[in-house]
Amino acid sequence: MNAQIDPIFFQQTHVRGLSNPAATGKGGDIYAGMNIRQQWIGFPGPSTQAILAHGFLSPYQSGVGLSAIFHDDGPLNSKNIKINYAFFIPFNDVAFLSLGAGLGFLGNLYKGGDYFIARDPDDEAVPLEAHSKLLPDFDFGFEFNTHIFEFGGAITHITYGYHDQITVRPMRNFIAYSRFKQPLNNNWDVIPGVTWQYNRKVNTFEITTGLRYNNNFCADFSYRNPMNLGVALGINLYENFRAVYSYDYGFDYLSSYNSGSHEITISYRLDMNKTYIKNKLRFFSWRMF
Q1: Per residue in 269-280, pLDDT tens?
Q2: Which residues form the domain of 88?
Q3: pTM value?
Q4: Residue 35 within any structural domain of the chain
């Protein structure tokens, strides 16, 4: 009952703004994307849908956006909707730092005993009755970027601690990540990275190696503990319209009951602020697909 409420996206590098508000507006353009994850094929219920939209306001050197995550794992249904803001600080046209905050609400619905056979009807950890809670929710994050390096971190559900955890209340979640781009030639780049997430009960890390071709094609290969392997393939379908598909499979106790997980991200970018970025934030437009 003390697992994470935040879903872990396999394609988290493509939808970074869902976990870190400091990525809001990054790229200097208008972005809109949708992510669908079908978890543990073979189990009824577990699925996640997410929407992310943001843009960059050059007069204020800021990014603003909206994120929404709808997660259903069977007994628990959650809706997390936030308005996100990020402020960007350039460093002599060599790097930039962004600081971000998210403000919104988290609505959790516990569906009750329909999903459990209670051995002890008086066990308060597994209540038989359905109940729900609507809570204010806050996130904070940062991100530091150069033209070949990225490092960031965030805290979600920042106002809720370990002792606040109940069936429908979130636990504070920590995330940190880093990756860098190594050009192989004029067309190909290799992008290794690592991501860590922690909430005092669940401690996960992920190692990813990505290949990019002219920023029009991507292939990512990932390992996440304990023994979860996956691959993602993405392509630029038309101009800035992109699609990414991934499949991951966990070699654990559940592997004999499911056939892995599928995830799809569809996004579109509308180029904006080209003159501003060229003159003031040259590396701000760097994208790793």
Answers
A1: 887 766 555 555
A2: 16-285
A3: 0.86
A4: yes
